[in-house]
Amino acid sequence: MIRSMWKRVCELTQTSLPGGLLAATCALVLLVGSGCGGDGTSDVTIKDPTVEESQKLSGIVSAPYGVLASAPRWWEGLSLVSSAQAAQGLFPVGPGLPVSLSELDANDFADGAIDSPRLVLPAVVTDTDGRFTFIAPEALDVTNCRKMVAVGNGETLTRALVFSRQVAIDATSEALVRVLMEYVHGSRAQLCDFSAYELSQLYRVVSDATYLAYGDDVASVNEDAFRRAWTNKTVQRTLEAIAAAVD
Hints:
Helix content: 25-40%
Number of domains: 2
Shape: globular
Number of helices: 7
CATH superfamily of the largest domain: Carboxypeptidase-like, regulatory domain
Distance between the termini: 70 Å
CATH class of the largest domain: Mainly Beta
């Protein structure tokens, strides 16, 4: 019906518009009319951008000199600033670094190690800004115990527990993982005793404690960040308060 109405408009304007302008006008109105159904609703489907956002887990990987390796690139040694990079001055890594997403069970951390991480999705790689993104229903749940993202291996292994949809992987996140492993290993607490909210609070005090952590490579800055966090009185009081609330 609407298409017929637009066609009739074209017919009525044939005597008043030049040929070229008439053709263009009719093509436009017929296109508009064809996009509508008989009840005036559009046949065009517009994707809801919030659907993808709700299924996205993303973050940035940072490391000394922006390099997840045991030594900096040769030209970075020529910098006029100190070679030791403070934790707050870590730089995003470059593209192509694989990032894994795993799920931990209630028994993990119990012996001071992560024994049985289960891969949730295939690994993704970082972009030019050091950002990684998982887009899948399996990445939706960031509140229940407990997902973990990780990069590197051996001395460069750097992990982050997932308690929000924005996750930073760096010396601070690795320090939080190690602090929790050390604490759980020496107490009755379990990893799953720590809720997403409690982890966010603990991450905040660990971040404050590791602000001045430094090192020439990933292994050394991760170790220094852990040492600073583990010996920090505020971090210890926060751990004890959370564990006491569980008991």
